[in-house]
Write a structure and sequence with these properties.
Length: 231
Amino acid sequence: MALTDEAMDKIKAMIVAGELAPGSRLPREEVLAGQLGLSRSSLREAVRALTAMRILVTRQGDGTYVSSLEPQLLFESLAFASDVSQGRAALHLLEVRRLLEPQATGLASALLTAADLDELAALLRRCRSAATVEEFVGHDIAFHLRIVETVGNPVLSMLLRVLSTRTQRVRIVRGTRTERAVEHAHREHDEILRALRARDAPLAVSTATVHIAAVEQWLAAGLVQDPAGAL
């Protein structure tokens, strides 16, 4: 494993140094292995790992290329970590979301149009009429992402999408007393929308913080009771 890590580090160093630009084709295996002082088997393992990370792209019959390296592309591979996160790892993801999303919500308060606000209200109506937890979570995610997307930073939007995936949210809602958790969420959503309609950035930040912190506090309390901390 150490040899594979070394091989990955060497390839990444070539990319960082500009020796391998986004979209460029890697040299033939025997050439690159010799150039980096690696065995061909170590190089193959490194290429497989970097392909899984979306840093490299293998084209059948054509060779291996450096990907576009767009942040959104690289973040996609992190979504799985959020999907399977449990216990303290899930709590850490929520903590990062709490640091980022309320600030984005505050920024959005000055950018949302009347049509945007009507769209958010429609999403909340769909939240209230949802027949299942999965349906509720789908509209909940759409509500929060629509606010964040208004800021116009695709990296921020993708990062927040990764930090709180549909799978993770369904598991969290189901881990609480579902009816109570959903009702609290409805009330907090309404408060966020009122702050956005009022163009009150500080209030938008605080209401979004309370909303995310409520889930974070529930999860933290569960960890105290059960240090193993599965959702």
